[in-house]
Write a structure and sequence with these properties.
It comes from Raphanus sativus. The strands form five sheets. The chain has a five-stranded antiparallel β-sheet. The protein contains 57 helices and 14 strands. The chain is mainly α.
């Protein structure tokens, strides 16, 4: 009969007990047999407690020998590993069999638990052959709850050690598992066993530790658990963390008081805590909130309080902790910690920017974790509010967060958040705008990707992103830089790289639905920029290829010019220019070839392939890789391509865009692309023809696109011919214009015959009176494209047009068209003028016919008089005159030499037309032509009439126009000077003064010759003085202005010699304005020594004159004395100041750019034509000037007449005005204000504060004696001025017996005729003439050189050259034909004042 396991164990225990000192071998053998047998013994299956207790007693009796032998031989303390392991197995089995009662006495339990701990510590060795036995021991201890006995026998130290051992074992198992995963074979062989064993081991450990903590938790054990809960560094593993988390979760009730006490101490008494965990209390709170959030209910108020502390770093740490707590997915912490969440949201508006930024980061994590939670809306609202934060760093962070939120939950993101985020593209900070452009383009990419995959539908709010990005081009801070950056975004970053063309166009069409005119303007600007860049690069590549066959220096110069233009299209122009030079030095033909391929490619797909291969070939390590990447993007059709055009045409022709609301955006987008890149129509000609035939509503725009694309496409002309001819005959004027252009391009070799036939049809249509406006437009365009064809019918067309001008307007004709403001008769006149003008400006070839008849018609039309057969209705004649003026402007491009001075003057006079609308329209057209360099620059003087006009709006517009013209002309003049190393003075903006003065001299409103009212002159000379103000803002123009004005004063009027005095008067007034300007700079070395004047307007003065002519000229020179000119200038400035003040009271300030006029007041700086500079010594020496006032003399005893201001007529003695004698044209002191008027004199000028020098030598007694005549000539005298009560020193130079007056040259530069009989004066004691000469030299100024006229004969109209002459050549002029009483004017005027 076989023995039972209990009997076997009993017998083996007895034998082992009887053995006195068993050796290791026999001991191991016996223990192994016992362990195996014990594993076969189960607890009694008796259910009744009494019976089970008796059964256990029987088992205990059977096992008693083994227990005694273990104790007898002291096997519990055996140090042999094998023996120790077998003893531990036997003991654990005995515990299992006899549970729940402990099988050993308490005094042996500590040794037993040491055995357990020793084996537990070896559990980390999973490859040991004994690992399964040790795991079994742990399982047995766990199931039997043996470790609870450790609490009974007070083994707390062993418990603490066991906890640390268990965490160590778990960490080691995790590391070993990672190592096994790297070995594929090991992973396959042991994967299932390892995972099962680890999970079982983890559960047994967790059970043992949970039992102990639930039975009796201590601070030390809690410390071990918390330490592993938040442990970091190389010893930290997820397994240990999971074990600690599980313990917290399982033992929450027993751990809560200990954990809360510890955390509360960390909040309140952190410094007094000795634990190393005090610095990790935030991490502990976070980990506990994940596993047992109810534990923290007593601690959370302390965390809330930290959010309110004054310390920023503490608030940020608490905020980050709260954010982590609320950022757990599917977590209800927001509901549990309601107060904490409320305070968390308040931190979004914290007073500290750092806290607000931290709150945004935390809010992002909260929303991403629970996008549909109850608290998500609060986070979104807080983020949206921060987009408007006053700190740009916070706005940037809010933008980043908002973009991330949009990408994470694009389908349900609030629309307000999208709108507010896109508004950051208009942020006041450039850095925010740049970040917004980058992030929103990524959002739009994700949006397009989701739409292409069907996850989303088209959303107008997301389609606003490209529109708002386009608005960056309107940024005034750095407009050019933004446009380049936006171009790159549209090319590379807006759409996913692999997004099909069809999907791209879906979004572009939807963008055009929401676009306004500003967005469209920005897009056109970017496309135009791209087109210009590609055109310039083509020229540059051609130059690169042909460089070897050309002059090296010339090639380098052209290359430099191209590099400057091309680099301007990059965000950083200076760096780009350096890269272009490096690229030139590399001379890599393959790069040039790749760029050429990209420029010639029309499809996006192929261009992307070429570009990718090109960049892959040069490699990312290439020194110019980034530059070439951008360069290749600009070369390729990355924004739009021929594929985009084909898609649009297919949709429109097939009707799949059948949605009526989308048809208009489709066509609008098509036209935008073709207007900028007409070559993209290639390959889609048939679809475009179908679209053209079926869409009358947009025929104008389609014809314009076709006219641009015609040179690039290869269409059968016979297909397009019927449509185009019909447009020329029956379409609108716009359609006709573009139809003729398309015919000229598509006809090819048969152009002449096609155009000739068309001309005949148009002539017949015109003579039959069919659709006359369109027919005239077609004829005009035909004349531009085919001169020979138009010449054949020119006589018929011109006769018809001239007949229209001679026809009397019908009384019963329809009223004026409200939209155009013209009646039908005037419309026909305007259309006829346009026809003749355009036909005279062919695109190719030359016009052989004369245009004198046309110019005569224009001149008569501009005169606004119905003579010589020119008829016009009263209401709309201004529109015809406007058309005539525009015609003259256009004709000046090629026929300027045929435009007479009178026609020029009439055209310029449109700048002061009584109709403000007509004037504004004319000036706008003029400005456009000038800025495009389409007409001569002399026409710019028309702006001057509106600058000084009464209409404030026209003043502002004219100021803006003339400032823009001057800047542009100056920039181009400097550019030409840099290239040619010289500058033509006729290209200088100041040269417009030459023409303006001539126009004013022939103005019928020129003040009458007897006018001496400075207010009248100030008003009339307003255009001249206003332009001088603008020109004087640039100091470089001052020497040129002096030369121009002096040259005019030395020349005569070539049109009407009688107008010569007017020229001189205007030049003198202009000279005075320049002299008195504080903007005058010292003479520069570039001061011109000669000045060219147009021979059609000016002629040379005869080299010799008769005495009478000399007298007349002398009288003219003295007619307007210097003080009068200064009063005119001062009056003008006073009027401007008063007008500005009144306008400032009623209207807001004008933009500085439009009002950058210098104030012409202040001190002067003297200059010399020779290039030397010398400050005027008189400015510091002569502060007290003699002040003179005008007093008319009443005479009744004579009927003599004297010359007056005009110099051309006589006036009666009763109205005579005394004239001061001044040096003609260029006095020795031209840049100094010679005198100031009395305060009581009308228009008195501001006196200069200069001091007079003290006279030397003896002074005789003051006297009022009779005139000494010629006896005092050459003597030095001092003369008392009643105005300021001071003496002024001077030299008597000449005596005029007729007027009984002496000519006195004062030391301050003034020269006057004075009647000494009525003055208080004294002679000085013998001042030498040497001293006088020294004084004279000290007062020499810019005007010491007087211009001299020279002639230069040419066949055509050539300017007249006027050179300055040396100082001293000009003598003082005298008034010799006035009465004796004129010499009395000064003293009597002073006495009266």
């Amino acid at each position: 009969m076989e023995k039972t396991p209990t009997q076997i164990v009993s017998e083996m225990g007895s034998r082992l007990l009887q053995s006195s000192r068993p050796n290791k071998g026999s001991l191991v053998k016996s223990l192994r047999e016992a362990a195996t047998t014990l594993s076969q013994i189960d607890q009694p299956l008796v259910t009744e407690a009494v019976s089970k207790k008796q059964a256990l007693k029987l088992l205990e009796a059977e096992l008693r020998p083994l227990k005694k032998s273990i104790i007898k031989h002291d096997l519990l303390k055996n140090r042999d590993n094998d023996v120790s392991l077998l003893v531990t197995v036997c003991v654990s089995e005995i515990f299992r069999i006899l549970a729940p009662d402990p099988p050993f006495e308490d005094k042996y339990l500590r040794d037993i638990f040491n055995l357990f701990l020793a084996e537990f510590s070896e559990l980390s060795d999973t490859v040991s052959p004994y690992f399964s036995r040790r795991a079994k021991i742990l399982e047995t201890v766990s199931r039997c709850k043996c470790c609870l006995l450790m609490l009974d026998v007070d083994c707390h130290d062993l418990i603490h050690e066991m906890f640390n051992t268990f965490f160590f074992v778990v960490r080691e198992h995790y590391q070993l598992n990672l190592a096994h995963q790297k070995n594929a074979k090991v992973q396959q062989q042991r994967k299932a066993n390892t995972q099962q064993a680890q999970q079982s081991l983890f559960n047994d450990i967790l059970t043992v530790m949970t039992d102990i903590l639930k039975e009796e938790a201590s601070s030390s054990l809690v410390g071990v658990v918390l330490e592993n809960l938040v442990k970091d560094g190389k010893d930290a593993t997820p397994a240990a963390n999971n074990l600690a988390s599980s313990l917290v979760k399982n033992c929450a009730d027993t751990l809560e008081p200990l954990i809360c006490g510890f955390l509360t101490s960390c909040f309140m008494e952190k410094d007094s805590i000795q634990s190393n965990l005090k610095d990790s209390y935030h991490e502990i709170i976070f980990m506990i909130s994940l596993n047992a959030p109810q534990i923290l209910l007593a601690v959370i108020p302390n965390l809330t309080q930290e959010l309110l502390t004054d310390q920023v770093d503490v608030r940020i740490k608490a905020l980050n902790l709260a954010g982590r707590i609320f950022a757990q997915p599917n977590h209800c912490s927001g509901e549990i910690y309601r107060d904490l969440f409320v305070e968390f949201l308040r931190r979004f508006s914290d007073k500290s920017a750092e806290v607000r930024m931290a709150a945004l980061k935390c809010g992002k994590q909260c929303y991403l974790a629970n996008p549909s939670g109850n608290k998500a809306s609060g986070v979104l609202t807080a983020v949206q509010e921060r987009l408007l934060d006053f700190d740009d760093r916070v706005r940037t962070q809010a933008l980043l967060v908002a973009c991330d939120l949009m990408k994470s939950n694009m389908k349900y993101v609030p629309l307000n958040l999208i709108s507010e985020a896109t508004e950051r593209l208009r942020d006041k900070k450039i850095s925010v705008r740049k970040k917004a452009m980058q992030q929103l383009s990524k959002v739009y990419q994700d949006y397009c990707d989701k739409c292409s995959k069907g996850f989303m539908t088209i959303n107008d709010h997301f389609e606003q992103i490209p529109c708002k990005i386009l608005l960056l081009c309107c940024d005034k801070d750095c407009k050019e830089s933004w446009s380049h950056s936006v171009e790159l975004v549209l090319s590379d970053d807006l759409f996913p790289r692999l997004l099909p063309v069809e999907e791209r166009m879906r979004h572009w069409v939807q963008c055009f639905v929401v676009m306004n005119h500003i967005h469209l303007k920005s897009l056109n600007s970017i496309l135009s920029q791209k087109r210009r860049f590609q055109s310039e690069l083509r020229h540059c590549l051609t130059l690169w290829r042909e460089a070897k066959d050309q002059n090296v220096e010339e090639v380098k110069r052209k290359q430099k010019s191209y590099f400057v233009k091309l680099s301007a299209c990059f965000p950083d122009a200076s760096k780009a220019e350096d890269f272009f030079h490096k690229l030139d030095q590399m001379d890599d033909t393959s790069i040039f070839d790749a760029l050429s391929l990209l420029l010639d490619e029309l499809t996006l797909t192929k261009a992307q392939t070429i570009r990718e291969k090109f960049l892959e070939r040069i490699g990312a390590n290439h020194q110019l890789f980034d530059f070439l990447r951008i360069l290749s993007t600009k070369c390729a059709p990355t924004i739009f391509s021929s594929e985009h055009v084909r898609y649009l045409l297919d949709q429109l022709s097939s009707g799949t865009s059948a949605d009526t609301q989308l048809k208009a955006p489709f066509i609008k987008l098509l036209l935008v692309i073709l207007n900028m890149f007409p070559s993209y129509l290639r390959g889609s000609e048939n679809q475009f023809l179908e679209l053209l035939e079926d869409n009358d509503s947009v025929a104008d725009e389609l014809m314009e696109a076709l006219s641009k694309a015609a040179p690039y496409i290869s269409a059968n002309f016979s297909d397009y011919s019927p449509v185009l001819e019909n447009m020329c005959l029956e379409g609108t004027r716009s359609q006709a214009k573009h139809a003729v252009s398309a015919i000229a391009s598509l006809a090819g070799s048969s152009e002449k015959s096609v155009v000739s036939k068309l001309c005949k049809k148009l002539r017949d249509s015109l003579l039959r009176g069919r659709n006359i406006p369109t027919t005239l437009q077609s004829l005009a365009c035909v004349g531009q494209y085919s001169v020979s064809a138009f010449d054949n019918i020119y006589e018929d067309i011109s006769s018809y047009v001239y007949q229209v001008f001679q026809d009397e307007p019908s009384d019963n004709q329809p009223p004026c068209d409200q939209s155009s403001g013209c009646c039908n008769s005037c419309k026909l006149k305007i259309y006829g003028l346009k026809t003749l003008v355009k036909s005279s400006l062919p695109r190719h070839g030359k016009v052989a016919r004369k245009i004198d008849d046309l110019l005569n018609v224009l001149k008569k039309t501009l005169r606004s008089q119905g003579f010589d057969g020119i008829k016009s209705c009263d209401d709309t004649g201004a529109n015809v005159r406007l058309a005539a003026a525009k015609a003259v402007l256009l004709l000046s491009r090629k026929w300027d030499l045929h435009i007479s001075p009178e026609l020029f003057r009439l055209t310029i006079s449109m700048g002061k037309d009584s109709n403000a609308f007509i004037t504004r329209t004319f000036l706008t057209k003029l400005h456009k032509l000038l800025m495009e360099n389409m007409i001569p620059r002399r026409y710019a003087c028309a702006f001057s009439f509106s600058v000084s006009g009464p209409c404030r709006d026209l003043q502002n517009d004219s100021l803006r126009y003339i400032n823009g013209f001057i800047r542009n002309a100056t920039r181009e003049a400097r550019a030409g000077r840099d290239v040619d190393q010289r500058e033509s003075l006729t290209d200088c903006p100041a040269y417009m003064i030459v023409f303006l003065i001539h126009v004013l001299a022939h103005d019928p409103d020129f003040p009458s010759e007897d006018c001496v009212d400075e207010h009248v002159y100030a008003r009339f000379c307003g255009p001249l003085l206003s332009v001088l103000q603008v020109l004087l803002s640039n100091k470089e123009t001052v020497p040129i202005l002096f030369s121009i004005l002096r040259a005019i004063k030395r020349a005569e009027d070539a049109v009407d010699a009688c107008k010569t005095p007017r020229l001189h008067i205007l030049a003198n007034i202009g000279d005075s304005a320049v002299n008195t300007s504080k903007c005058i700079a010292a003479t520069s070395p570039q001061a011109p020594r000669s000045m060219l004047l147009p021979s059609s307007l000016y002629k040379l003065s005869p080299p010799s004159m008769s005495d009478s002519q000399n007298k007349a000229k002398s009288h003219t020179r003295n007619a307007l004395e210097q003080s009068f000119m200064e009063r005119v200038v001062h009056t003008f400035r006073s009027q401007i100041s008063l007008h500005d003040q009144s306008c400032q009271e009623d209207t807001p300030a004008i933009v500085l750019e439009d009002r950058d006029l210098p104030l012409l007041v202040g001190n002067q700086i003297e200059t010399s034509m020779t290039g030397s500079t010398e400050a005027s010594k008189n400015n510091t020496r002569c502060s007290k000037k003699r002040t003179h006032a005008v007093l008319p003399e009443k005479r009744t005893t004579t009927s003599k007449k004297c010359k007056t201001v005009g110099g051309g007529e006589n006036i009666s003695r009763d109205s005579v005005v005394s004239l001061r004698t001044v040096e003609s044209e260029i006095p020795k002191k031209t840049l100094e204000r010679h005198s100031t008027c009395s305060k009581k004199s009308v228009g008195a000028s501001v006196s200069n504060n200069v001091t007079s020098s003290k006279p030397s030598g003896a002074v005789s007694t003051l006297k009022d004696t009779s005139n000494h005549g010629e006896s005092i000539i050459g003597q030095r005298i001092k003369l008392l001025s009643p105005a300021d009560g001071s003496f002024h020193h001077g030299t008597v130079e000449r005596f005029n017996s007729k007027s009984n007056s002496h000519k006195i040259a004062f030391d301050n530069g003034d020269v006057e005729l004075v009647c000494l009989d009525s003055e208080s004066w004294e002679t000085l004691s013998h001042e030498s003439m040497g001293q006088q000469e020294i004084l004279g030299k000290e007062t020499e100024s810019f005007g010491s050189r007087v211009p001299e006229v020279k002639t230069k004969q040419q066949k055509k109209k050539l300017p007249t050259k006027v050179k300055p002459i040396a100082a001293g050549e000009e003598s003082v002029s005298e008034v010799t034909n006035t009465s004796d009483n004129i010499g009395l004017r000064r003293s009597r005027r002073q006495r009266t004042s």
